[in-house]
Amino acid sequence: MPHARGCPNMDDFDELLSSLTPREDNEAIASYQNTTAVACPSCEEPFDDMVVCKQEFTSLNLDFEMDLCTTINDGNVVLFTHK
Ligand SMILES: [Zn+2]
Question: What spacing in Å lies between the alpha carbon of 27 and ligand 1's midpoint?
Fold first, then answer.
């Protein structure tokens, strides 16, 4: 799967989504598990989970510490977690 270097090409978002396993979907977030080691669109390292933030990013309780890559898709903040 081709990846734009440095600048994520979220035209591939639907394709990316289809490769991931849905885990959680509520009014605040939708999270997906990367069970197939898909490369992160930002850093090209395989990520663990993708989280789509449906609300203001600041309203989220991010009570975990890990490396994150972020991007924007369709106005929503999208997080890619790296453990
Ligand atoms: Zn990344």
Answer: 25
